[in-house]
Design brief:
Layout: E1 16-17, E2 20-21, H1 70-78, E3 84-85, E4 106-109, H2 116-123, E5 130-141, E6 144-151, H3 153-156, H4 162-165, H5 168-175, E7 179-181, H6 183-188, E8 196-200, E9 204-212, E10 222-225, H7 226-231, E11 239-243, H8 249-259, E12 265-268, H9 275-280, H10 310-321, H11 340-350, H12 359-362, E13 368-369, E14 379-382, E15 394-400, E16 403-406, E17 415-418, E18 425-429, H13 433-444
Length: about 450
């Protein structure tokens, strides 16, 4: 479950992968959004942040802190607790212990149940270590859109981001019939940790919020048990998470796709090959890393350029600056409200450029550049989610003269602030329009 999560309108899913959704139903798509903010007035600097400094610090205040021990609240306040969960859950050890971690490399999503024979055949493909059937759907949590997985907690936890995978209490709460949500969704929507929240799919239930934690699969905001997912009306076993860390993903994707129904979509969850090589294979760009954690597309070189023209940069920045003062709304992509990546996507569109919707994907649309080469129009990326400290979760637009523009967090407006290069800065990227368009095209389906 992740910072970059909420982006589908309430209708049963479609296809989600690496922050991507390929629409298989009539409902239009919403943007998703990310974890923490960059505070106004942060200092333009190129040094590590001091203790307590940085972006998106965790605050355990109000209902979000309910049910957490005093020590846990102190850890949350200091930003040192990677996964927030309830001390009082899990008296009975139902969930199996975590024995190992699995890298989630590919995600398949279909509008209906995948044949079990397909999963069995995928598991036999060269390089595949594991392939787990899960339920995938779009629901509403507390009135907000969320992409949800229904899982067997004992089997699926190994695919999650390491801090979440190790949080047995969180997975126990899922096994007990609760819902675990992404850290960002929990914090920004002020969901009551330990309290009840209305969860609505085709049916509606009140579920206990058992934990905040990032799964590490972009686009996923919420996890429940497969039994609860089906009681909500989410399609059964319509998605497949595949771990194949040593496989060549371009080849494996082609092999998996040959086994799938025509309506199923597949996409990579990690970066591996250069976009040019992937594009030549006719498959979604592996430059769309959700798990890599660093800005800059893997394998991108000058041959994948050029960057934006001066006219495109002017149009991009003019559009972005025209939105200053517009409100931040998680999942909004303009023209009158924005989240951080929605601001980038909308502003690029006004310049005639196509961008992916999610910050983690936008971070892969060009090469990583040194700070000494920063130019207006470059994008700045950040790690702001303490439950996924290596995931890209925020983006800002570099304006020049040490300034950047960002859509910060709920309750704040699009703003121009001093650029921040502190401890949670993940890197700067020069956007290559050709790479960005290929990335956005593969995400769209």
């Amino acid at each position: 479950m992740r910072d970059v999560a909420r982006r589908l309108r309430p209708a049963l899913w479609v296809a989600v992968a690496a922050g991507m959704v390929a629409s298989l139903v009539s409902a239009p798509l919403l943007g998703q959004e990310h974890g923490g903010r960059l505070a106004a007035g942060t200092v333009h600097q190129a040094r590590p942040a001091a203790a307590g400094e940085g972006l998106g610090r965790v605050k355990a205040t109000g209902s979000a802190a309910a049910g957490i021990s005093l020590a846990g609240q102190r850890q949350l306040a200091s930003g040192s607790l990677p996964v927030a969960s309830l001390d009082s859950f899990a008296a009975t050890p139902v969930v199996a212990p975590l024995r190992h971690l699995l890298q989630a490399d590919l995600l398949v999503v279909a509008p209906a149940t995948l044949p079990r024979a397909v999963a069995a055949k995928v598991r036999r493909l060269p390089g595949v270590v594991s392939a787990e059937l899960v339920d995938a759907g779009t629901i509403r949590v507390g009135g907000s859109n969320a992409a949800m997985l229904g899982v067997d907690p004992s089997a699926f936890r190994a695919f999650a981001a390491a801090p979440t995978a190790r949080a047995t209490t969180l997975w126990q709460s899922v096994a007990d019939g609760g819902v675990a949500v992404s850290y960002t969704m929990g914090q920004q929507d002020k969901l009551p940790l330990g309290g009840l929240v209305q969860v609505t799919g085709r049916q509606s239930q009140r579920l206990r919020v058992g934990g905040f934690g990032t799964v590490g699969i972009a686009g996923v905001d919420a996890v429940v048990s497969d039994a609860v997912a089906r009681s909500l009306g989410i399609p059964a076993a319509n998605a497949l998470v595949i771990s194949a860390p040593r496989a060549q993903l371009v080849t494996l994707m082609r092999q998996v796709k040959a086994l799938l129904p025509a309506t199923a979509a597949i996409a990579p969850l990690v970066a591996q090959a250069a976009p040019g090589a992937v594009a030549s294979a006719g498959i979604a760009s592996a430059g769309l890393a959700a798990a890599a954690g660093a800005a800059g597309g893997d394998g991108i070189s000058a041959a994948d350029g050029p960057g934006m023209t001066p006219a495109e940069i002017r149009a991009f920045l003019t559009a972005a600056l025209s939105r200053v003062g517009k409100p931040y709304v998680w999942g909004a992509a303009g023209p009158d409200a924005f989240d951080c990546s929605g601001l980038v996507q909308w502003s690029m569109r006004q310049a005639g450029l196509v961008m992916p919707r999610v910050a983690a994907d936008q971070a892969q649309t060009g090469p990583l550049i040194p700070l000494s080469d920063l130019r207006p129009g470059d994008l700045l990326f950040y790690h702001t989610d303490p439950t996924a400290p290596t995931s890209i979760s925020h983006v800002a637009i570099y304006l020049g003269n040490g300034l950047m523009e960002q859509a910060p967090e709920p309750g704040m407006d699009v703003q121009v602030v001093p650029a921040d290069f502190g401890a949670e800065f993940a890197g700067a990227v020069e956007v290559y329009p050709r790479v960005a368009a290929a990335a956005a095209g593969s995400i769209a389906g």
